[in-house]
């Protein structure tokens, strides 16, 4: 609706040439065209001859006046089309009036007039059976713009399509006198309301099929050519129930929806439109923000003449409405950025004033209180037999008088009247019982399917360019990194030049002290040379030049001061060294940021992740990690920008959408969360369908199928290279299957380290969130089975635990029949990381109760007993795991811990066997070290040396490997080799001690195959034994 205009604007309609009219009727001679709009006939063209080629030239013009406050307002203009009727003119006798018979009809949509002044189109005539090839040229024009460019750009076009009401009550009948209606109101400018009415719903019987595709209809009454009601190029496009915005979109509703859509239903398939100006758009946004649910009323009306009755009957008729129901449409989706359409199913309930007001804050009924705005004409809403079920006293007296009069005139008439009254009362009671059951719609399960669509979203979605600019504003500028243009040869040359420069400087110092030595002075004796050397060293040390020359010979550390190696815990040193080697490595910066999160330094972690974004603004993992660390720092607006940018950058990423959904849930923005989760589920369904197709194709070709989901995921790259240390890494995956472990010395991240206060710290495990299938048709959120980095779960302080709790809550809600064994394993894993051993034990007890034959349960129970230092029970659990035919997910770690227990109990034969199994599962320095120790204890020196050599080949910086090699060499009498191994042992051991800060001394040598019995050591990490008490370190 628009403000009033002083003068109406004429809209001119010109009917031009027609073609192929003979396709409608071969002997067609004379025709005319009738033009109608909004129920009024604008005029008829002159009678025109149809030429032999089927053409006719009408050259006829007519017009109507557009006025915002008149009958042909803007609301009417966008809702109703121009109706053209082709009439055949025949005359058998000149003295008689010509006969006119309709042949076909066509419609012209006037909506394009909102954007211009002239509309010229060719319409096709629609006869009463099919679409013909006959065409007609029509031009519609206005003398001036109906809307200015500013009005059009600031407004919005709203289209509402009411498709059908399904699972309707049994009392609904296909009576020609009955009509089914629905209505809702939209805000207009100021305090005005615009009612949008859907009439002429058609009751269809069971099994009656719908056309495909289903065309949308104009909001017009019955016309001669039913196909002319179809809006051109506008169809109802359905989709999976899970993608809808309304109710009944869960997997458990699918069967009910399918059955209801083929049963009795009331079909409209009608679209009505209205143009909202800037004020109306603002009111719409405000109304939705104030109350998300909007009422859509439903009722049955009777079309026909009014019956006789007293004034009190007519008053009661106004108060009661037959089958008055209401559906509550959640409009909040339209306030999500970029959303301009919602479609879904909405349950219908009996209309109750208190309930409607509670949910929608609407205090009136459109059908009951504002019927005058609907222009229903002779149609009556209060048609229920209940109005007749309670006749007034006067009516009862009149009836009794008629009966008595009948008895006086004759017995037959009285009997007939009595039978008629009895039948009337029986029918009334039966119909009253059917129509006015208190829960008629709820008992039937009635629901409406409708679509609400805007031409432009109420809240524009930020463009990718805008998001990139916002990210740049959030990340402070950093100096550009020096380009890596120098190769190895150039580096060696520069080093040689530096050595030459230092040598020349030292020679000049020598000349200053002793002068130049001439060749004719002869050779200097040895004692003089040593004395000069001593004096030169003294002068260089006392003057500080010695340390200056020494620094010149060192390779400069290219890291900025905040990343100085000596200020970091030992576990971070190798990561920093990676950055020093390659400052352009995004993965190195992400790894460093992950370690900073582990050590509860979110600010430094944010700097690392931001540096990764600076290196590549289109790196999805970096953006997501920036969002997560912003949640940790409680800068939620910045977090939203990063999550939104990641989803915009990679819209096919399941993880990005799922993490965004979890974030919106944390902000109580459930509509945005629902839409993000729905997008993730849609992507997952497509992925699973593709995997199923590949699997079926492989089976059809007789090949061994390989499902992509069983292979290591490549969407995220979890590898983190660590140089100079030897720890086992175990990437947490599905607790039931698919868990993989990677030896650190082959280039993967170490997980086990210590906190700043020197206590044992949680491992750097990664919690990845994705959407997975709990059942065939029910996608749900899961907190495991992952692809990459986005949610680091270390402590409650390191990463917001709400991500974990929300993911597990979704998993619990999606499960049918209660929590599963996998759920308790995942929940227990979170308690394990928080060192909450009692609650972890409770979860494992439930898991054992549900599935006592699951090897993963017993593996986790063994880990729990191990951390509680109950090694006997831990050994029993590990041995039970090994006895199962199916391996546990973390067999590698089970082997390592069980082997360490056997070594401690001096069962060296069993220890050797277990460590060999670990080598077969995933060979690493630690596994071969365990084999070497066991063989050494058994006196199998040759096998021990071979095993330790394998360990040394995988990692030559493990002090314990060199120590046992030294012992083996001593046993064999190879003293020179033993001395060399011993020197390497001291060298790598001292290097490790110096690398660690004094505040965090390493409590045991790096890389020992045995496992400590103090401090937490969760699944996936091979811990190291204490230094002095190591049961494997002592020869």
From TrEMBL:
<keyword id="KW-0802">TPR repeat</keyword>
<feature type="compositionally biased region" description="Polar residues">
    <location>
        <begin position="1026"/>
        <end position="1035"/>
    </location>
</feature>
<dbReference type="GO" id="GO:0070062">
    <property type="term" value="C:extracellular exosome"/>
</dbReference>
<feature type="repeat" description="TPR">
    <location>
        <begin position="855"/>
        <end position="888"/>
    </location>
</feature>
<feature type="region of interest" description="Disordered">
    <location>
        <begin position="377"/>
        <end position="402"/>
    </location>
</feature>
<dbReference type="InterPro" id="IPR011990">
    <property type="entry name" value="TPR-like_helical_dom_sf"/>
</dbReference>
<dbReference type="GO" id="GO:0060271">
    <property type="term" value="P:cilium assembly"/>
</dbReference>
<dbReference type="GO" id="GO:0031514">
    <property type="term" value="C:motile cilium"/>
</dbReference>
<dbReference type="Pfam" id="PF13181">
    <property type="entry name" value="TPR_8"/>
</dbReference>
<dbReference type="InterPro" id="IPR019734">
    <property type="entry name" value="TPR_rpt"/>
</dbReference>
<keyword id="KW-0677">Repeat</keyword>
<feature type="repeat" description="TPR">
    <location>
        <begin position="586"/>
        <end position="619"/>
    </location>
</feature>
<protein>
    <submittedName>
        <fullName>Cilia and flagella associated protein 70</fullName>
    </submittedName>
</protein>
<feature type="region of interest" description="Disordered">
    <location>
        <begin position="998"/>
        <end position="1035"/>
    </location>
</feature>
<dbReference type="InterPro" id="IPR052628">
    <property type="entry name" value="CFAP70"/>
</dbReference>
<feature type="compositionally biased region" description="Polar residues">
    <location>
        <begin position="383"/>
        <end position="393"/>
    </location>
</feature>
<dbReference type="GO" id="GO:0003341">
    <property type="term" value="P:cilium movement"/>
</dbReference>
């Amino acid at each position: 609706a628009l403000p009033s205009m002083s003068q109406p604007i004429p809209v001119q309609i010109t009917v031009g040439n027609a073609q192929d009219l003979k396709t409608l009727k071969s002997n067609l001679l004379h025709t005319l065209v009738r033009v109608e709009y909004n129920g009024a006939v604008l005029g008829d063209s002159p009678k025109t001859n149809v030429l032999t080629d089927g053409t006719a030239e009408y050259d006829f013009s007519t017009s109507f006046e557009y006025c915002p406050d008149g009958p042909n307002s803007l609301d009417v203009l966008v809702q109703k089309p121009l109706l053209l009727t082709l009439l055949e003119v025949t005359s058998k006798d000149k003295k008689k009036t010509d006969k006119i018979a309709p042949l076909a009809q066509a419609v012209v949509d006037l909506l394009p007039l909102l954007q211009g002044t002239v509309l010229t189109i060719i319409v096709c005539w629609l006869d009463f059976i099919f679409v013909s090839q006959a065409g007609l040229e029509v031009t519609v024009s206005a003398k001036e713009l109906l809307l200015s460019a500013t009005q059009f750009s600031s407004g919005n076009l709203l289209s509402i399509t009411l498709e059908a009401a399904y699972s309707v009550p049994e009392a609904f009948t296909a009576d020609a006198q009955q009509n089914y209606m629905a209505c809702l109101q939209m805000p207009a400018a100021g305090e005005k309301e615009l009612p949008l009415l859907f009439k002429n719903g058609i009751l269809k019987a069971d099994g009656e099929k719908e056309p495909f595709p289903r065309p949308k209809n104009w909001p017009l009454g019955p016309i001669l050519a039913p196909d002319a009601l179809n809006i051109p190029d506008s169809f109802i496009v359905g989709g999976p129930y899970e993608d809808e915005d309304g109710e009944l979109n869960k997997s458990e509703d699918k069967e009910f929806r399918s059955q209801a859509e083929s049963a009795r239903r009331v079909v409209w398939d009608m679209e009505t439109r209205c143009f909202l100006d800037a004020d109306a758009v603002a009111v719409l946004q405000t109304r939705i923000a104030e109350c998300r649910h909007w009422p859509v009323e439903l009722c049955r009306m009777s079309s026909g003449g009014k019956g006789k009755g007293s004034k009190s009957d007519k008053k009661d008729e106004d108060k009661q409405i037959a089958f008055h129901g209401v559906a509550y449409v959640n409009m909040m989706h339209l306030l999500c950025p970029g959303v301009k359409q919602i479609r879904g199913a909405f349950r219908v309930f009996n209309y109750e004033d208190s309930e409607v007001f509670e949910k929608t804050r609407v205090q009136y009924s459109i059908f009951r209180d504002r019927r005058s705005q609907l222009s229903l004409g002779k149609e009556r809403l209060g048609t229920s037999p209940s109005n007749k079920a309670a006749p007034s006293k006067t009516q009862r007296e009149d009836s009794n008088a008629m009966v008595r009069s009948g008895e006086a005139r004759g017995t037959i008439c009285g009997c007939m009247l009595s039978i008629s009254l009895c039948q009337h009362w029986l029918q009334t009671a039966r119909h009253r019982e059917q129509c006015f059951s208190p829960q008629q719609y709820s008992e039937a399960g009635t629901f409406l399917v409708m679509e609400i669509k805007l031409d432009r979203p109420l809240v524009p979605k930020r463009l990718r360019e805008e998001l990139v600019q916002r990210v740049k504003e959030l990340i402070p500028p950093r100096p550009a990194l020096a380009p890596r243009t120098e190769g190895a040869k150039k580096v060696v040359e520069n080093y040689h030049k530096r050595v030459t420069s230092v040598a020349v400087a030292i020679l000049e110092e020598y000349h200053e002290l002793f002068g130049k030595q001439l060749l004719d002075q002869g050779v200097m004796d040895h004692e003089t040379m040593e004395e000069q050397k001593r004096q030169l060293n003294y002068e260089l040390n006392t003057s500080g030049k010695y340390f200056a020359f020494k620094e010149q010979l060192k390779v400069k550390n290219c890291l900025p001061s905040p990343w100085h190696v000596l200020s970091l815990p030992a576990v971070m040193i190798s990561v920093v060294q990676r950055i020093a080697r390659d400052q352009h490595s995004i993965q190195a910066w992400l790894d460093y940021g992950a370690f900073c999160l582990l050590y509860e330094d979110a600010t430094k972690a944010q700097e690392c992740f931001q540096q990764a974004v600076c290196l590549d603004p289109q790196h999805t993992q970096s953006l997501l990690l920036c969002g997560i660390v912003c949640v940790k720092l409680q800068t939620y607006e910045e977090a939203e920008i990063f999550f939104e940018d990641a989803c915009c950058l990679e819209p096919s990423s399941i993880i990005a959408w799922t993490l965004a959904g979890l974030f919106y849930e944390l902000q109580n923005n459930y509509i945005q969360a629902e839409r993000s989760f729905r997008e993730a589920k849609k992507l997952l369904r497509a992925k699973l369908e593709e995997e199923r197709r590949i699997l079926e194709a492989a089976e059809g070709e007789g090949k061994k199928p390989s499902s992509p989901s069983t292979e290591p995921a490549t969407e995220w790259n979890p590898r983190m290279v660590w140089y100079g240390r030897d720890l086992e890494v175990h990437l947490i995956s599905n607790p039931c299957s698919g868990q993989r472990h990677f030896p650190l010395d082959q280039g993967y991240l170490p997980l086990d380290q210590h906190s700043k206060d020197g206590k044992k710290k949680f491992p750097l495990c990664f919690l990845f969130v994705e959407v997975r299938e709990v059942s065939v048709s029910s996608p749900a959120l899961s907190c495991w089975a992952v692809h990459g980095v986005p949610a680091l779960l270390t402590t409650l302080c390191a990463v917001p635990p709400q991500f974990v709790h929300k993911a597990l809550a979704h998993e619990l809600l999606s499960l049918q029949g209660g929590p599963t064994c996998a759920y308790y394993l995942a929940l227990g894993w979170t308690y394990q990381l928080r060192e909450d051993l009692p609650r972890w034990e409770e979860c494992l007890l439930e898991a054992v109760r549900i599935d006592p034959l699951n090897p993963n349960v017993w593996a986790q129970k063994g880990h729990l007993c191990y951390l509680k230092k109950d090694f006997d029970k831990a050994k029993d659990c590990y041995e039970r795991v090994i006895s199962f035919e199916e391996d546990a997910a973390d067999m590698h770690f089970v082997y390592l811990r069980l082997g360490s227990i056997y070594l401690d109990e001096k069962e060296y034969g069993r220890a050797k066997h277990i460590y060999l199994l670990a080598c077969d599962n995933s060979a690493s320095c630690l596994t071969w070290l365990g084999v070497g120790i066991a063989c050494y204890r058994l006196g199998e020196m040759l096998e021990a040396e071979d095993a330790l050599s394998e360990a040394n080949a995988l990692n030559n910086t493990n002090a314990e490997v060199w120590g046992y090699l030294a012992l083996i060499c001593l046993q064999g009498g190879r003293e020179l080799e033993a001395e060399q191994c011993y020197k390497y042992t001291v060298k790598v051991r001292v290097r490790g001690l110096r690398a660690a800060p004094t505040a965090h001394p390493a409590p045991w040598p790096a890389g020992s195959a045995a496992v400590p019995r103090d401090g937490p050591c969760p699944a996936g990490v091979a811990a190291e034994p204490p230094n002095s008490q190591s049961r494997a370190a002592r020869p």
